[in-house]
Write a structure and sequence with these properties.
8 helices, Methane Monooxygenase Hydroxylase, Chain G, domain 1
Amino acid sequence: MLRELLTIFRSDKPLAAMGKNFSQMLEMTNQMTIQAGVMYFTDTVAPNERTQIYKKDVQVNKLERTIRKQVIAHLSLGNWPSLPYCLLLMSLVKDVERIGDYAKNLSELREIHPAALPDDEIVAELKEIRASVEQQFADTAQVFSTSDRERALVLTQEGRVLTHRCDALVTRIAASDYSAGTATALALGVRFYKRIAAHVLNVLSSVVMPLHKLDYYDEDEIAADEVG
């Protein structure tokens, strides 16, 4: 289904405009995630940096509403054959919009913990998670544009491992002797990176799963499809 949707996006049909807006959403939330990571791990943050994040978030929200209006207008004209693709797009834009929200939340954590983060093994692993999430996002945008199913399967497995790493790291933070402020900032940072990774996985699911199982990963069904 995704390959067909991308074909429509690249055509002169009305859905092409929706595809352009969706691509902008992906690009902007990717930028927001990277910017938020810099802000989270940097001791001093300039006010204009946070303003840039907020402005991008507003733009992402506007793009989501624009796409919804485009979908409604398109279907109101009786274009029912494209209904499955419109449903897919409506689901995907919500995931991407949520990524923007979590990136914004991540950028705000310096407000509750303005001091430098500890230089220890836990923070080192969190930095590794950050790098993995940013790479996963960049790879997913490429996979989405090419509907590379084999690469999507690999990234899906890597993403699931990444979310499990986040859970394990929160447990380590809870058992540490950090101050309340530091523990809160670190636990929330891990949580926000996990949620970003989870929504990126949802976008990946559009490549490997049928529409009715979007956001889920049925390994038995994937294996059966590969055999078939």
